[in-house]
Structures are given as C-alpha cells and as structure tokens.
Design goal:
Elements (H helix, E strand, L loop, with lengths): L9 H10 L47 E3 L6 H8 L27 E5 L2 E6 L2 E5 L24 H8 L4 E2 L1 H6 L2 E5 L5 E2 L4 E5 L11 E12 L6 E16 L4 E8 L3 E2 L3 E4 L19 E7 L5 E2 L4 E4 L12 E6 L3 E3 L10 E3 L3 E11 L4 E8 L3 E2 L3 E3 L2
Antiparallel strand pairs: 1-2, 2-3, 3-4, 5-10, 6-8, 7-12, 8-11, 9-10, 9-13, 10-11, 14-16, 14-23, 15-22, 16-21, 17-20, 17-23, 18-19, 20-21
Length: about 375
C-alpha cells in the first residue's frame, strides 16, 4: 500500500484534494519537451491529447451513497468513511487546480456526488472539484471563512485533550521555569490563586504571557531498544504572568490538579494542533509500539490518545494514518502432524486506526479514530 503516497490516482487524488485541509501544493511542473521531428508531409500532426487518466480501481464502498450533503458536525474522516472501505488508503498526492482560488477545504452544505465511478464536489450549485476525466471547471473566486471548514477530526469535542500531551527530556524539565511557592504561603494552589515563579526564561516574558504548569511523570522507553525517549509530563493547569521580577507572579486561570512548589512552567502552545490538517500515508514503512495511553488506563477506545515510540526522526508527520495491530500469541497445537511444529504463533490482528496529531523527535501522540477492540500498551502500529 506504500505506493499510494507516490501515485496520482486520477479519482482518489482529486477527492483527497478536498479531504485534505489547508495544505497548499503547486501544480505538477511541466517540462519543455525537445523539438519534435517534423512528420512526413503526407502525415497530419496528431492533435494534442490530454494525459490518459489513471484507471486504477477506486476503493469505494459498495454501500457508498450516490449523493451526500456535508453536515455540520461532520469531519473529513467521517465523510471519507462514507465512500472508502479503507480510510488509510488515502494518498498524499494532491495538486492545486489553477481555476480554484480557495484552499480546497470542504464545508457544510457542499454536495458530494458519486456517478459512474466519478466523484464531484459542488458548492452553491457549481462543481469545484471532479474526478470525471477532463472535467472542465469554470474560473471562480469564493471567499469562505476557514473557521467554517469541516475539521479533520472531531476537534471541538477533544480540543482540550489534544492541546496537553507533551514530552520533555530530563534536561529540558530541570531548566524550565518553576513554581517557587504560593503567594499566601499554602502548600497547594489552584485557580484563581496566584503563585510566585522563577526562571531565566521568564525575564524576557512580559505581563500577560501564558504558561502551562506541568509535572514530570513517567519515563517513556523504546519498546525494542529500551532507550529512554523522554518523560511524559502531566498538565496541571495554566496561568498568565501579572508582574515581572524575580520572583515573578503568575495568576492561575485554570487547574486540573493541585499545583505545588517545584512544578514547572512551559509556554502555552496556541494552535499546536490545527483543526484542519491533511490525512496522509506515512512516507516510509513504520513499525512502532504504543508505549503509553493518556489518562492512566491500560486500554482505550475511539477518540482517546496514545503515545508511540516513533517520532519525527522516523519521518512521521502530523496527519499520518497508522494501522493498529494486536500481536498474535503463541499457542500449543496438540493436533500437529508429521513435521508440523506443535508451537505456533497466531497471526497479528488489525484492531484499529489512529492519526498522528503531535510529534516530538522520538515520540508522537496519536488519536484513536476507530477500534474494533480496546487499544492498549504493547500494541503494534504499522504503515497500512
């Protein structure tokens, strides 16, 4: 399935143009051909022909609707699931159509039509994207707010969850600004209390700067090499600087747990996980392991966050879709005959799909998009 990232599938790539969000790309470059040898006088030059469309079968569900109107609350994942039997087969390849001036997002009210194997996207009665061979699109300019665009995943429901996972090295944690004590001398603090904070990095920050308060939690190890990849840090709350100095004062605006002296401060990541981003097939073959789940549970289901022992160093990118597999166990076969082994390993079982949404050099966080069984620590993730 690796070839889907590098093959422009005439039908699938066009739909992916609409299903990917906000990722600008340029039209394929056209090279200037060498002058052609003049044909014999009796032979008329053949008229220029457009390139033949890719005839690879489109992986459309047998139950795909003929016409679907995009609804408020839809996501790019859920829309594609109406049409594709295997969402992870979406290719990365897409291109800009020079007639279209909008960013190729999909909006509530858009109409997706499946007719004779061709898919079209209509907006306001005008076709803005079509997989029909050589379909001519009319020049147009449409101005639609990006805020109204369909998100890739159910962002509104889980945006708080997506904004908090973080990994730090021991050195990064020790060098981060820290909570010195509460302003009223108590051992614990919570919003809307104030705390005194110190750190070299705070001296350049002005009043109003936002910080998350975190606490170093469990170490994360590579499942194969057992190398230490970093430490997961727990989100405790957030606040804004109200005065500078050494120590400075931080007013807590939100808290999920008690905050105490020694907790660290990290700048709040605004927009670290955009609502719209492309869904991709990884550039390389990935084989990794789920090494943790957010929330302290051993197993999780749909729309829960897991931690992988693969990151940007392994060429993972935001939006990469991975398959989750449960490793088959080894059992004894009492009925084995002749030279058959009595000890046999059962096949791995695909149990779900996930999407990478936040990446660090050696670790990444992913959202479980679908699962037929609970997904847990030790499960394998692979390129579909």
């Amino acid at each position: 399935m690796q070839g889907y990232r590098s093959i422009i599938s005439g039908s699938l790539a066009v739909l992916a143009t609409v299903l990917v969000a906000g990722c600008a790309s340029h039209p394929p470059a056209t090279s200037t051909p060498a002058p052609a040898t003049a044909p014999p006088p009796a032979t008329a030059a053949a008229p220029a022909q457009p390139p033949a469309p890719n005839t690879a079968p489109l992986p459309v569900k047998k139950t795909a609707p003929v016409r679907y109107v995009v609804q408020k609350g839809d996501t790019l994942w859920s829309i594609a699931a109406h049409f594709f039997s295997s969402p992870w087969l979406w290719p990365e390849v897409w291109y800009e159509n020079h007639y279209i001036q909008d960013p190729h997002l999909i909006y509530p009210g858009d109409v997706i039509t499946l007719n004779g194997g061709a898919l079209t996207i209509s907006r306001g009665g005008t076709v803005v994207r079509s997989t029909a061979p050589f379909h001519q699109l009319k020049p147009q300019i449409q101005r639609t707010s990006l805020a109204q665009a369909v998100p890739t995943i159910p962002y509104d429901e889980i945006s708080v969850l997506l904004s908090k996972p973080r990994v730090m090295t021991a050195k990064q944690y020790e060098q981060a600004p820290y909570v010195l004590r509460t302003t009223d001398g108590q051992l614990l603090a919570a919003a809307p209390q104030r705390v005194y904070v110190r750190g070299e990095k705070l001296r350049k920050a002005g009043a109003g700067a936002s910080y998350a308060v975190v606490q170093k939690d469990k170490p994360l190890y590579d499942a194969q090499t057992h190398d230490l990849l970093g430490y997961e840090v727990l989100y405790l709350g957030r606040g804004n600087l109200v005065s500078g100095g050494d120590p400075a004062t931080l007013k807590l605006t939100a808290s999920t747990r008690e905050i105490r002296a020694g907790n660290r401060l990290v700048p709040v990541d605004t927009g670290s996980v955009p609502a719209q981003f492309p869904l991709l097939t990884p550039r390389v073959q990935i084989k990794g392991t789920i090494i943790d789940v957010i929330g302290g549970l051993g197993e999780v289901g749909q729309y829960q966050v897991v931690v992988l022992d693969r990151g940007s160093r392994n060429q993972l990118e935001m939006g990469d879709v991975l398959r989750v597999e449960r490793t088959g166990t080894s059992i004894n076969d009492p009925y084995a005959q002749d030279n058959m082994n009595h000890q046999v390993k059962l096949p791995n079982e695909g149990i779900g799909q996930l999407v990478i949404f936040r990446i660090f050099p050696r670790v990444s966080f992913a959202l479980v998009m679908s699962a037929t069984r609970p997904v847990g620590i030790g499960d394998t993730v692979t390129t579909p």
